[in-house]
Amino acid sequence: MPLTVSSLIKYCRSRSLHRPAYHQTSWFRVLVAAVFLLLLWGLNRSTCIRHQSLCTNRIWHKLLYASEGSMRKTTLAATLIVFAGLAGCAKVRYPNYYELGLPAPASTSANAVSIPGTVSVREFRAARYLTKGPIVYRPEPEQIAFYNYEYWAEDPRRAVTTAVIHELQHTGVFESAGWFDGRGNPDYLITGSLDRLEEVDSGTSVAAEVGLSARLQDLKTGAVIWSGSSSERAAVERRSAPGLVAEMSRELNAAATQLVSSMQKRVSATDLASR
């Protein structure tokens, strides 16, 4: 695709989300510190020159003390001004926290044919880089990076598990569905993993990608009845962290729906009744 001014502007805007403001960079702070030291050196040099020219007699020597006192006040004032400027430039930027938007639990579909028995869903697993806190993006297919100030308010694994449970309850695949807490005696167990939850950058385009995989196990026999995966990817139209999170939420709900639908097609009430 030919490089145009509009595509270059879009590319720069997409990159600007991951970079701190200029006044928060190390080079800017070093520059301000260097200017401050240069100012002190100049004031000290001026004091030495005055000292040499005014120390020829006692009268001028007294004047020197008065001049040095004034110079100290000037130096102190300059120091306070520079440090005040540094404090303003290095203003603390606090992180922003986001949560994945999940639809409210819907009532079971009236036409649903439930499979006899109960199912519990164990909290989904995920790679460590997806659960560290910062939102993940990929500037290159093989490179993983993190937003500086954009964090998840809740562990994404919990949000994914909740989305799958809500979908199971809505579709009515089983008589009941809930969290696996180690207590109780469910008939079936779903385990799974969050494989992708990240922004993917490709040239001037930015996309949100979500990937899930899971399996259904009969706890009475220990047999794995079903296993499958789902993935969703869509372009992020609103180039901002809230826009990215909103798109991730939509893709997560779509991936959970796809996963449960695959399970529902593979496993029927007749199949499980014969086990």
What's a concise summary of this model?
By secondary structure, the chain is α/β, with parallel strands linked by helices. The chain has helices at residues 5-16, 26-54, 58-89, 156-171, 241-266, 269-273, and strands spanning 96-98, 115-121, 125-126, 134-140, 143-152, 174-179, 188-202, 205-218, 224-235.
Q: What coarse outline follows from CA principal-axis ratios? A: elongated
User: What is the CATH topology assignment of the largest domain?
Assistant: Rossmann fold
Gyration radius (Cα, Å) is 32 Å
Record field, number of beta strands: 9
Largest sheet composition: 9 strands, mixed
Question: What structural class should be given to the helix and strand makeup?
Answer: alpha/beta
pLDDT < 50 stretches? 54-61
- Report strand %: 25-35%
The CATH architecture term of the largest domain is 3-Layer(aba) Sandwich
Portion of residues within helices: 40-55%
Task: Output the CATH homologous superfamily of the largest domain.
Answer: ABC-type transport auxiliary lipoprotein component
Query: How widely separated are the two ends?
Result: 56 Å
Mean pLDDT: 80
Number of domains: 2
| Topology pattern, helix = H, strand = E | HHHEEEEEHEEEEHH
